[in-house]
Amino acid sequence: IGDVDCCGTRFNGYFNAKEKVKESMATFEESYEEDYTRLLPVFIQTNEQSAQTVLADMDVAIEKCSKVINRHSIEKRNDEYVKWIDECYFVIGQANYHKMEFAQSKQFFEFVSKKYKDQETKYDAMVWLARTYIRQENYMQAERILRLAEGDEGFPERLLPELRKIYTDLYIQQKNYPLSSIDLKLAVQHAANKNDRSRLTFL
């Protein structure tokens, strides 16, 4: 992104906002009650009712990131010269996603994926954009985005677990269980931790 890193930008703004989203969703997931008599969802995520429980935390994260962008962003010839600005936009997209504000989250994820093409954050934005499209039941667009991301030679290995899970969710939502089972097996193989692997194996 450039060589400028404003003092405190990362830790006082972006970092705190990112942790707020992470901690809020961790608390939400801990309180989530699984129904083992039905097909488990691929992702534990908010719905229209439960989104209210994370609303305040997400608004705090959005406010923190917005302040970082407004106070520190420096653009020259359409290039951003301050680190963490792309991540701030991405966190705002995530916060809106958890608030069930999908039109807004889609806007931010699209912006990051197009504006910061030379940054790895664009791939994070693309996979979350696909998740957003799935929530909107726009499955064709979701798969298109996933194919574009996966086909890019710069796609980071760290996102493979997320990618396989999103493919699984995409096909389950369409009740295409044969295809979902293929990606689910890959998701188990790429699972980031033991708990995730156990849950996916049960699914």
Straight-line N-to-C gap: 40 Å
Strand order of the largest sheet: 1-2
Derived structural class: mainly alpha
Radius of gyration: 17 Å
Mean pLDDT: 90
The largest sheet, given as strand count, sense and whether it forms a barrel, is: 2 strands, antiparallel
Helix content: 55-70%
- The global form is globular
Give the number of helices.
9
The poorly predicted ranges are 1-7
How do the SSEs run, as a string of H and E?
Answer: HHEEHHHHHHH
Please state roughly what percent of the residues sit in beta strands, choosing from under 5%, 5-15%, 15-25%, 25-35%, 35-45% or over 45%.
under 5%
Number of β-strand runs: 2
Structure description:
With 203 residues, this protein is mainly alpha-helical. It is 66% helix and 2% strand. The protein contains nine helices and two strands. Strands 1-2 form a two-stranded antiparallel sheet. The chain is globular. The chain starts with 8 loop residues before the first helix and ends with a helix. The relative contact order is 0.11. Residues 1-7 have low confidence and may be disordered.
